[in-house]
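Hello, quick one for you while I still have it in my head. I'm working through a protein record and want to make sense of it properly. Would you mind checking whether the tokens look sensible for this chain? I owe you a coffee for this, so here goes:
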Amino acid sequence: MKFTIAAATLMIGINMPIATSAARQASDQKSVLFEQLAACRTIANDTERLACFDQRASTFETAQRTGDVVVVDRSQIRQARRQLFGFELGSMPDIFAGHQAEAPIDAIETSLTSAVQGGDGKWVFKLADGSEWRQIDSDPVRFRNQEGIQIRIRRAALGSYQLVAGNSRAVRVRRQ
């Protein structure tokens, strides 16, 4: 499993198993490869500094090619955070823990692809961003079940989420 760790504007992932101490291990091991590459800047002799950069960059590139290191930019981090919105990751450490420059996502807006009411009377909403949300409250909800209708999902109290379809009332939902 890959975890992504922040390093300047880059994010560097190191292969490690999921464990409760994984977040601590990740911050301790930011990336030996990245730190070794950055250390080349301290070499005064131009020829030695260039040789160091060439050797460390080659090692870094090999690690990236084999999947031992993953480099992502900020826009990829934003996209991943948005795609993970609504999932409770439990004991999995925050793979973006080193990147605290942006506030957490509290709401998303997208559009409805389809909505189906189950035998229990609860709705399952399929959204344009590919996510699927299931109604968890038992209150009846009325909305225009039409593809393209605007959907807003926001964080609510105690780890729950509320979905508003068009001008309907808020429906308590869980990501599937």
In short: The radius of gyration is 22 Å. The chain has two domains: 2-84, 107-175.
